[in-house]
Design a protein that fits this description.
Among the domains are: 113 residues, no CATH class; 97 residues; 44 residues. The longest helix has 47 residues. The two termini are 45 Å apart. The chain has a three-stranded antiparallel β-sheet with strand order 1-2-3, covered by helices on one side. By secondary structure, the chain is mostly helical. The chain has 20 helices and three strands.
């Protein structure tokens, strides 16, 4: 994948510096996708007409009929086999960024806008409604059943618009969940977010329906409390799709899951101290341990540090009344044991699990965030037509990191994604360095090849000169020397100086011949 990144042959700080990402290994061929889908349709029509039974392979193909096998196959394989280094590669992140800019942020932005459009009237109703008993009737069938409101309550136009808007959006969201349930089938129930949304939208309807009748009921405000809590928590989950905020939301959910597992394991300690304090202190005037339920709640608050030692233990011990703190010795020993085990050991263990291995948590959160983005794009592309995909898909992406963008684009970029020019700055710098080293290696190899060619040429020239010397019957200086005496013809032509002149002429002639070639 490093070969799919190309950069400009200029300084990285120059305005003309660009980075080009090629998606030839990630982008599926749309024409092959059309042929594959057409082949699937022909197979199913043929077997349907001939009343043939479908084989297990056909059933596997039928699952991919609605969601094509050519929908982000490379990225889905990376997610399936937990290839974090491949998902975090600059080419992969640039490819996801291209998909996000093309349609992802618009689809997710519209969903977020519709959700916030329903969150505003819900928050308004919760904040502006008086939940005092005089403004609502009690639930039917209760012991203290009273009808304080004899006639329907009248609301202002703005308040009525908020009620109708919240009702319509809640019904619309439930219809969307039903469509998703039909499309995803068993996979739909494996996502805990869907369960939260069902509870949210059903409780919203239960909260707002009595307003439509004009007779507020006691229990509707309880549903309203649950609704507003889940509504704002679900809004937090919406931001896990964005690159800037998504990593922190996913990390929060990972740590929350870890803490829930640990608390589920150590809940036996909470039960143990709850029953022990209830057995010793349930008759105290404080009433904090009067019932097992209140005792459990009090143990949880004491675990967080609210022990209230003076009022609960010291004052009853020194007041001189034998009916208060009737078992002082065992109560103080139990308190000491509780302080050592719960606030000190257990709380420090939870904090250590939460922040001790933050690097691994961040790595896992990054994988989950990228997997959610891949799943989002896979679901959306599975519903888009081939014509739209041809319009939005790109085979390559060129980024100019040193050029300024407009203020609107800058705000959108900071809110929805990281620096678009460099999806992962450190990895991009390393990959660019690797490519520069590869370029230097290629240049050195070229110089080596040129030196080899020059060496071969020199060998050929040496052989040519040797043949010329033999043809002209010219003897070398070593052959002419005889114990220091020079031959007669060397003396006649000036000895070795004459031979050097002939040799220089031959070298000049050979150089001229090579130049003419």
């Amino acid at each position: 994948m490093n070969r799919c990144i190309k950069t400009a042959d200029c300084s990285p700080k120059s305005k003309d510096y660009w980075i080009k990402y090629e998606f030839k290994y990630l982008q599926p061929n749309i024409n092959k996708r059309v042929e594959y889908e057409q082949k699937i349709k022909e197979i199913f029509h043929e077997k349907s007409d001939n009343n043939k039974q479908f084989t297990p392979d056909d059933r596997t193909v039928s699952k991919s009929k609605g969601e094509s096998a050519f929908t982000l196959p490379a990225l889905n394989s990376m997610v399936q086999y937990n290839r974090v280094e491949c998902l975090r590669h600059p080419v992969s992140t640039a490819y996801l960024q291209m998909k996000w800019n093309a349609y992802g942020r618009w689809v997710h932005g519209i969903n977020l806008f519709i959700y916030v459009l329903g969150l505003i009237p819900l928050t308004y109703l919760v904040c502006s409604t008086d939940t005092s008993p005089i403004y609502h009737n009690e639930a039917r069938g209760s012991v203290n059943e009273t009808n304080r409101i004899q006639s329907p309550m009248e609301y202002s136009t703005f308040r009525m618009v908020m009620i109708l808007l919240l009702t319509g959006l809640s019904v619309g969201q439930l219809m969307k969940e039903l469509v998703q349930m039909y499309q995803q089938k068993a996979k739909y129930f494996m996502d805990a977010t869907n369960v939260i949304e069902w509870i949210l939208y059903v409780s919203t309807l239960l909260y707002v329906t009595p307003f439509l009748t004009g007779y507020p009921i006691h229990w509707q405000f309880e549903f309203g409390s649950v609704t507003v809590l889940l509504a704002w928590f679900n809004l937090l989950l919406f931001f896990q799709r964005f690159d800037v905020t998504g990593i922190y939301v996913v990390m929060f959910l990972v740590i929350l899951k870890t803490l829930c597992k640990v608390l589920a394991l150590f809940s036996f300690l909470i039960v143990a101290f709850t029953l022990s304090f209830y057995a010793l202190l349930h008759n105290e005037e404080d009433q904090s341990f009067s019932t097992p339920g209140l005792s459990a709640l009090r143990v949880v608050t004491m675990t967080l540090g609210e022990i209230n030692y003076v009022e609960m233990f010291l004052a009853p011990f020194v007041d001189g009344d034998d009916s208060t703190l009737h078992y002082p010795t065992l109560s103080f020993l139990l308190l000491i044991c509780f302080i050592v085990v719960m606030p000190i050991l257990l709380m420090n263990l939870l904090i250590g699990l939460a922040v001790g291995d933050i690097a691994e948590v961040q790595s896992n959160a990054e994988l989950q965030r990228l997997a959610m983005q891949v799943q989002l794009h896979t679901d959306i592309e599975g519903k888009l037509s081939v014509r739209i995909l041809r319009m939005i898909d790109k085979d390559e992406l060129v980024i100019w990191p040193n050029r300024k963008c407009g203020p609107v684009a800058k705000i959108m970029g900071r809110f929805t994604a990281k620096d678009e020019a460099v999806p992962h700055a450190n990895e991009t710098v390393l990959s660019i360095t690797d490519r520069n080293i590869d370029h230097l290696h290629c240049e050195i190899q070229k110089q080596k090849d040129r030196l080899k060619d020059m060496q071969v040429t020199l060998v050929k020239q040496h052989e040519l000169l040797r043949l010329i010397v033999q043809k002209m019957e010219i003897q070398s200086e070593a052959d002419n020397q005889d114990e220091g005496a020079l031959p007669d013809y060397q003396r006649h032509f000036g000895g070795s100086n004459a031979y050097s002149g002939v040799r220089n002429k031959l070298i000049a002639a050979n150089a001229f011949k090579s130049f003419m070639k």
